[in-house]
């Protein structure tokens, strides 16, 4: 048994229990009505205490709270760093009788991983008896292959430790004059979100912050509890390097292929000698989608396994595991936080992903961006998020969490235009990025109008078209209020 892993699991369980007791303690000091005060309706509206909550507010950092309060706008979305003290911002918002959502602006944890991009991580025209220095951010080590040129046969392989962000590789081949170096960095944090050990640690840290901040009656939800995410799922080129991932991958392979021989045939191993699925889950392909070497590498055994890379389903298999983990674990993260703090959890849309594009999206809402004015804000930003929300029938709050004018400041007309267009797409809330507060009079007027209009009961009508049909097709308003 891995004692560190087991200990970590016990710590996580112990923390969740203590968090639950802390939440229960907080609830016991308030009235019985403070629990389950909210729901999301079929029209994608957040109802709080039985009334629609349709904010038109600021998106700010804690240092702008006093200025935001002075504008008279009563709703704010506050960006907070994980290593900051959340209590002063929450206390100030509560003291001002503001309604507020808390957003984690720290980057989401990056998964430890092997980076497999031989089309990019390569050095051509390498000479014998040469030394090469490679810059590897977050690097732990680099596995490398020295290939002869022009036939690309493997002359040697090896490892180089990363020290101070750099790896040094010395080429000292006994024969040959021209080579190619293929590099496979092993990094402690990659561009792929860590849905395994990193997510567990982030969940515990965020819960500790929320409970410690003592959110009160003005609290309306959490945005991005995992942090800022560049892409929710991998676009290829990353092999997660963690025990929890390998356990999931092993389980997936066993369920899909039933026996090792079936996996060997599917992965096109040229000399089948796999002992078990556990060994297969350790494999790192030495090929990408277009270039590389016809082999897998087992870093534990330090051996190569020859395989045909053409139409090899390995990358589809690993993508299925990553997508499944993203959907499943962000869903659990949202539920655990929502249940403990009794408020909705919203994930901001950032690319097509299984966390939104499913019958049961993760969290209780989808946050969309609207940057710029006119149809630019819709076509380039809001339309994709609205499409994810409208394509499925799940009851998820849809709101514009990031709204800014782009190159030119808002006028009342341009601000109203974006709010109106996104409302027609189904948005039931708007947060304008703070840039001085000049928009406040218009925002307060629109907040009053939203509270007295039929927006809470309005549902958009959408006509979907394929992503690859864009240009000439664009997102636009059609006759009859159809988008």
Structure description:
By secondary structure, the protein is an alpha/beta fold. It has two domains: 33-110 and 193-237 and 315-483, TIM Barrel (Alpha-Beta Barrel); 113-188 and 268-312, Sandwich (Immunoglobulin-like). The protein has eleven helices and 22 strands. The protein has helices at 3-28, 65-70, 87-95, 197-213, 243-257, 260-266, 277-282, 314-341, 375-391, 412-424, 440-452, and strands at residues 38-40, 46-48, 51-53, 56-60, 75-80, 99-104, 113-115, 122-127, 130-135, 139-148, 154-163, 166-171, 178-187, 219-223, 238-240, 284-287, 292-298, 303-306, 345-348, 365-371, 397-404, 430-433. The strands form four sheets. It has an eight-stranded parallel beta barrel with strand order 4-5-6-14-19-20-21-22, surrounded by five helices. Strands 7, 8, 9, 10, 11, 12, 13 and 15 form an eight-stranded antiparallel β-sheet that branches. It is elongated and about 80 Å long.
Short key terms for the protein model shown above:
11 helices; 8-stranded parallel β-barrel; Immunoglobulin-like; elongated; 8-stranded antiparallel beta sheet; TIM Barrel; 483 residues; alpha/beta
Task: List the topology elements.
Layout: H1 3-28, E1 38-40, E2 46-48, E3 51-53, E4 56-60, H2 65-70, E5 75-80, H3 87-95, E6 99-104, E7 113-115, E8 122-127, E9 130-135, E10 139-148, E11 154-163, E12 166-171, E13 178-187, H4 197-213, E14 219-223, E15 238-240, H5 243-257, H6 260-266, H7 277-282, E16 284-287, E17 292-298, E18 303-306, H8 314-341, E19 345-348, E20 365-371, H9 375-391, E21 397-404, H10 412-424, E22 430-433, H11 440-452
Parallel strand pairs: 4-5, 4-22, 5-6, 6-14, 14-19, 19-20, 20-21, 21-22
Antiparallel strand pairs: 1-2, 2-3, 7-13, 7-15, 8-13, 9-12, 10-11, 10-13, 11-12, 16-17, 17-18
Helix pairs in contact: 1-4, 4-8
């Amino acid at each position: 048994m891995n004692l560190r892993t087991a200990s970590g699991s016990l710590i996580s369980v112990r923390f969740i229990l203590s968090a639950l007791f802390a939440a229960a303690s907080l609830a016991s000091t308030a009235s019985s009505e403070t629990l389950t005060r909210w729901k999301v309706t079929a029209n994608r509206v957040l109802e709080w205490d039985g009334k629609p909550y349709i904010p038109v507010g600021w998106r700010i950092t804690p240092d702008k709270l006093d200025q935001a309060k002075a504008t008279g706008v009563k709703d704010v979305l506050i960006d907070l760093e994980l290593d900051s003290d959340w209590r002063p911002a929450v206390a100030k918002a509560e003291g001002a009788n503001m309604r507020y959502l808390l957003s984690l602006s720290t980057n989401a944890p990056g998964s430890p991983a092997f980076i497999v991009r031989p089309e990019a991580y390569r050095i051509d025209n390498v000479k014998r008896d040469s030394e090469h220095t490679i810059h590897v951010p977050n690097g732990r080590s680099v596995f490398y292959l020295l290939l002869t040129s022009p036939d690309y046969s493997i002359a040697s392989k090896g490892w180089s430790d990363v020290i101070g962000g750099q790896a040094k590789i010395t080429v000292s081949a006994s024969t040959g004059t021209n080579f190619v170096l293929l590099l496979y960095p092993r990094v402690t944090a990659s561009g792929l979100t860590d849905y395994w050990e990193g997510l567990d640690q982030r969940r515990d840290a965020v819960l500790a912050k929320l409970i410690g901040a003592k959110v009160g009656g003005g609290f309306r939800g959490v945005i991005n509890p995992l942090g800022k995410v560049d892409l929710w799922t991998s676009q290829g080129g990353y092999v997660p390097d963690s025990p929890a991932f390998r356990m999931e991958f092993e389980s997936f392979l066993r369920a899909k292929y039933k026996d090792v021989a079936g996996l060997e045939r599917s992965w096109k191993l040229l000399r089948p000698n796999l002992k078990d699925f556990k060994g297969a889950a350790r494999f790192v392909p030495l090929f990408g989608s277009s270039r590389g070497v016809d082999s897998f590498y087992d870093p534990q055994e330090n051996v190569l396994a020859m395989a045909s890379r053409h139409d090899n389903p390995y990358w589809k298999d690993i993508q299925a595991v990553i997508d499944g983990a993203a959907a499943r674990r962000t869903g659990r993260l949202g539920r655990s936080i929502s249940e403990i703090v009794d408020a909705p959890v919203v994930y901001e849309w950032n690319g097509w992903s299984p966390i939104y594009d499913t019958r049961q999206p993760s969290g209780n809402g989808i946050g969309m961006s609207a940057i710029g004015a006119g149809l630019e804000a819709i076509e380039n930003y809001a339309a994709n998020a609205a499409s994810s929300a409208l394509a499925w029938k799940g009851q998820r709050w849809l709101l514009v969490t990031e709204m800014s004018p782009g190159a030119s400041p808002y006028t009342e007309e341009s601000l109203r235009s974006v709010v109106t267009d996104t409302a027609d797409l189904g948005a039931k809330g708007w947060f304008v990025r703070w840039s001085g507060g000049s928009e406040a009079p218009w925002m307060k007027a629109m907040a009053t109008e939203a509270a007295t209009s039929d927006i809470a009961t309005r549902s958009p009508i959408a006509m979907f078209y394929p992503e690859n049909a864009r240009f000439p097709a664009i997102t636009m308003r059609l006759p009859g209020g159809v988008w």
